[in-house]
Amino acid sequence: MEVRALYLGDTSDGVKVHSFFLSKCDAQATFEKFKARSVNKDKAPIFIDLYDDEKSLILETIGIDEETYSQITGEMVMSYEYYQRESDFNQDLVFGAIEQVIREQGIDVPWSEKDSLGLSARKLQKFRQSDHILREISVDELVIK
């Protein structure tokens, strides 16, 4: 089981929220917390799915507001554009990994390495994971003295 979040904001087209909290939480307990504070899906900016990954099936979907999401996950709700960029980046990582394997097998691809968004995303991910960036922080974590 896992809990997935889809951010709609003011649109009718949702984008997946890549949440560290949701990827590590107790799915059933967390979903019950969300369910206790759910709102009408017609007006909800965020949908929460209880997903059975073994069956590849959404068991239940509820709507929640942004404040509830932040309170339960401890994560600030970002803009639709932010989540869309994050989703695109993760998609580029997947294609970059596939492209890297294809190139390692000696198969030619019809574009150069410097034009590859996937390989660029993988390089950025490796840079973030190296000692160049010890920790990413948000503006909310800064304290003025």
How would you concisely characterize the structure shown here?
With 145 residues, the protein is of the alpha+beta class.
Give an overview in words.
- With 145 residues, the protein is an alpha+beta fold.
- The protein has two domains: 2-73, no CATH class; 80-131.
- Helices cover 42% and strands 17% of the residues.
- It has helices spanning 20-24, 27-36, 66-73, 80-104, 117-129, and strands at 2-7, 15-17, 46-52, 57-64.
- Strands 2-1-3-4 form a four-stranded antiparallel sheet.
- Helix 4 crosses helix 5.
- The N and C termini lie far apart (44 Å).
Per-chain topology:
Elements: E1 2-7, E2 15-17, H1 20-24, H2 27-36, E3 46-52, E4 57-64, H3 66-73, H4 80-104, H5 117-129
Helix pairs in contact: 4-5
Question: In whole angstroms, how far apart are the ends?
Answer: 44 Å
User: In angstroms, what is the radius of gyration?
Assistant: 18 Å
| Contiguous uncertain segments of 5+ residues | none
Question: Approximately how much helix is present in the residues?
Answer: 40-55%
Order of helices and strands: EEHHEEHHH
Count of domain modules = 2
Which of globular, elongated, flat, extended, rod-shaped describes the shape?
A: globular
Beta strands, count: 4
Order of strands, widest sheet = 2-1-3-4
Strand content: 15-25%
Salient structural properties:
145 residues, alpha+beta, 4-stranded antiparallel β-sheet
